[in-house]
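Could you help me review a protein record that somebody else here produced? This is what I was given.
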Amino acid sequence: MNFLKPKGWVDPSQNDIEVVTSLLGKIPQGEFQIIKRDVDGHPLVIENSTFFHDGTPMPTRYWLLESNLFNEVSKLESAGGVKQVQDEIDIEEIQKIHIKYEKGRDSLISHDYQ
C-alpha cells in the first residue's frame, strides 16, 4: 500500500461506508475517514487517502458531503469567492497554506512509491 495512515486515522464503520456511498452516489474508490459529523452523527466531511484502491493518485484530500453546505460553498465560489479571498489574503500566506497542504499530503505517501 502506498498510503500511510496518519496517527489517529479512524477507519469508517460499515454503516458509515453505506451512508457515504449514498451521499456520493457511488462506492468510494479509496480509503477515507470521517472528520466532521453533524449533531445527529451523520458524516459531513471526509478525508480521503492519497490513492484510490487501484493505485491512482487521489487529487482531493477532503470532501464536503452535505448537499446544502456543498451548494452554498459552490454559490460562494461561483460568485467570485475564491478571487475575493485571494484579494484579501496576502499571496505569501496563500503560498504557505499550499505548502503546508502539500507537505501534509506528501507525508502520507510511502517513501518507496514510484
Q: What stands out?
A: The first helix runs from residue 14 to 24. The longest strand covers residues 43-52. The chain has four helices and three strands. Helices lie at 14-24, 67-78, 81-88, 91-106.
